[in-house]
Amino acid sequence: MTNHITTKWLGEMAFESNNPSGQTLRIDASPEDGGKGDGYRPKALMLSSLAGCSGLDVASLIKKMKLEVDGFHIETIANLTDEHPKYYDTVTIEYHFHGANLNQEKLQKAIDLSVEKYCGVMEMFRQFAELEIKTVFHG
User: Which Pfam families match (predicted)?
Assistant: First the structure.
């Protein structure tokens, strides 16, 4: 399967990029880098892709396993190297679950399946960064 995305320059430091789903998003540099800050930063977008990819896996598994979860969010904390080209060398991914009746064992299993088996973006990150996975349960 091939993904084809078109990214169009809008002038200055802004771009618009489409997606196979038909949605578009704006990419822009920060004001200190000559942009207006009116869009997503490319490197930060990679972290959203990582969290989104794994989040979709976990949400699907929560449904399949019929688990009770009131809320769930992912914190992604990444370190950029100092030298150009700057890239993420370490990334911490924290899965936070909220609820009174959390099945911690099954939720951890859902995370493990995503991290080790299903999430393709996680696998891509593994090629260049050290990943640390954390799970936090909020009762």
Answer: OsmC
